[in-house]
Amino acid sequence: MFELKHRDGMSRIGEFTTPHGIVETPNIMPVINPNVKFISPRELKKKFGSQILITNSYIIFKSPDLKERALQDGLHELLDFPGTIMTDSGTFQAHVYGDIDIEPETIIDFQMSIGSDICTILDMFTEPTDGRELVERKVGTTVERARQALSKYSETDSHIALPIQGGVFPDIREDCAARLSKLNGTFYPIGGVVPLLENYRYKDLIEIILASKRGLGPAGPVHLFGAGHPMVYPIAVLLGCDLFDSSSYAKYARRGDMMYPEGTRNIANIEHLGCLCPVCQSHTAKELRESEERVRKIAEHNLWISYNEIDRIKQAIMEESLWEMVEVRARVHPQIHESLRALSKGWNILERYEPRSRRGALYYTGTSTLHRPTVERIQRWIHESYKPPVDGPTLLFDIKPDKKPYHRYLTRELSMLLPDYPVNLLVSTPFGPVPLEMDEVYPIAQSLFPHFTYDGSQHCSHREEIITWDGEETLESLSKGTGMKLHEMKVRTISDYQFFSGAGQIFSDGVLEFKTNRMGSIKNVLLDGKHILSMRHYDGLFTLKPEGALISHRLTEHPVLRICVTDDSATYNREGKNVFAGFINQAWEDIRPGDEALVVDKDDNLVATARSTMNSMEMLHFKKGLAARTRDGFSI
Questions:
Q1: How many helical (H) and strand (E) elements, i.e. helices and strands, does the chain have?
Q2: Strands 522-527 and 530-535: what pairing?
Q3: Do 438 and 376 share a structural domain?
Q4: Which pLDDT score is estimated for 96?
Q5: Are strands 362-363 and 447-448 parallel, antiparallel or unpaired?
């Protein structure tokens, strides 16, 4: 069982239940060589709080002594580790040394017999140099072995890891992931990526992760095989990877290499450790170089750094600031920085997991910031779907980007124009030209950029003639007529953007009234005297009130805006209790985390208003976890 607890886009903090306890993700699995216990599993648990580790079942199987002890006492007794243990199958040994002398059925049977919590099938390692035809054959064999293993061990508590292979072909990776997900497994490593990591081919790695996630959907946990350096963790977690295995902590230590989030340094070249881990706080660089336990101490440092980076990532997820962390961390290596461009290829999947707003402001860290899904979403909507509120010319205002929300610095101009002139209004922003009525919507107002001048007339997508505002001279060129007040423009445009195309018309079909705060911003929207919407001050979007929900439900067809729940759930949701995954029959595909939604029963009777915590795919995939927070219930 994998339960989603917190999220930031595709990144997630989850709880993965295994026979030997719950593992909180994201997390790392130190690799344990059963022949050389560099740092003992018991010490990993006690000193580092390790919840999970990974060892190689093939090595145990090929050692008569280890095999006998594992079969007699069990894997956990053999390694002296009370937590979760994953076993690899020997696939990587086949990659390094060539074919191995064991059958796929034999190694999965052995892993089950010694009590592994997560058993890995003997998949076919796909090399980056493999041609397409060879990769397709290997993937076919891997999927068939996965099917056979799941069929044989469908009733066990242990999980079976189903590695996603596909070489450097994203479409094959996606197909492999989709085929494996249909087998209803519970654990999905992304395999065959070690050669890419060793050669700093991060762009290929990102494309492989994105393709795998497209095929898998919300399934997980997802384990990135062989990713042992903390440099990789932030961007991999951002893309939805949950677990990493690390033998690098020991391998690097043997050659004197100390890991840091920004890279690797050899102890021979270090005079100032610059680290707050227990090892570095109790040793100088000179003492560490000369220590008889140098290798062990550096390995401990590498583990402290790795676990600390995971903790920072988890905190960033909680704060919804992982994008900023990734963009900053990516600058530690040119290839990782370059790989950020590959994220644009993942727009279709990244956007589905991206909330329309976040709790904190969007911080500009570089040009990559303008390509985040939350930014591209609003840019694409303005470019492709925005409908100007009135039939008239479009005026562009060019003001300083730090003057936000922009309309408060245009009070004189607005009093001259609205509602006496039928005009549509744009304002130049660092995001491009934006309808003025959206100037309080996240991230337009909730963003921090360096001070610079932006030519808002560039890249303007509107087909109407754009007139740059030039004061009285511009006013004289306009014709008076029936225009629209700014607040009404806001209701029309923001509703269309936030809910669905046409929502703005539904919510303004009648007499609109507004209650405002002391700054003049909208607090409540009333339609024909009924309170239908409230504006959220922190992101400029609307909260759907009961009367607004009734209007939306009456004037739209199923499944628009809807989360359809079971009868048992509906009874509780009417009382204001939350909606949980596992009790949802259907969900509108356009629902994103944080969206307003209508909860309905199987007959489309309105049950409650709610705010989602999952997207529609997650609601239907997960069997446990909070799916939406209910606000107002409706009696039958």
A1: 26, 29
A2: antiparallel
A3: yes
A4: 65
A5: parallel
pLDDT tens digit sequence for 56-96 = 999 999 999 999 999 999 999 999 999 999 999 988 776 66
Is the pTM higher than 0.90? yes
Q: Which residues are catalytic?
A: 88
Cis ω before 230 (30° cut-off from 0): no
Q: Is residue 130's pLDDT more than 70?
A: yes
In a domain, 357, yes or no: no
Domain's final residue, options 551, 567, 591: 551
Range with lowest mean pLDDT among 32-41, 254-263, 314-323, 473-482 = 32-41
Q: What is the CATH number of the domain that holds 120?
A: 3.20.20.105
| Residue 238, SS3 per DSSP | helix
- CATH code, domain carrying 529: 3.10.450.90
Residues 396 and 440 occupy one common structural domain = yes
Strand partners, 513: 526
Q: Are 38 and 124 contained in the same domain?
A: yes
Is the separation of the CB atoms in 463 and 432 below 8 Å? no
445 and 520 housed in the same domain: no
Number of structural domains found in the chain: 4
CA distance 406 to 415: 14
pLDDT reading at 171 higher than 70: yes
Residue 353, domain member (yes or no) = no
Torsion sign across C-alpha atoms 134, 135, 137, 142? positive
Q: Measure the CA–CA gap between 258 and 273, rounded to whole angstroms.
A: 9
CB 190 within 8 A of CB 164: yes
Q: Which of 480, 503, 530 marks a domain boundary?
A: 480
From CA 183, how far away is CA 180, in angstroms rounded? 5
Would you state the pLDDT for residue 378?
96
Whether 423 is in a domain gets the answer: yes
Nearest to 92 by CA among 205, 188, 189: 189
Q: For residue 98, what pLDDT is reported? A: 66
pLDDT digits 0-9 by tens, 542-589: 999 999 999 999 999 999 999 999 999 999 999 999 999 999 999 999
Verify that 129 and 215 share a domain, yes or no: yes
DSSP string for 531-594? EEEEE-TTTSPEEEPHHHHHHHHHHS-TTTTEEEE-HHHHHHHTTTPPEETTSEEEE-TT--TT
Domain that holds residue 417: 362-480
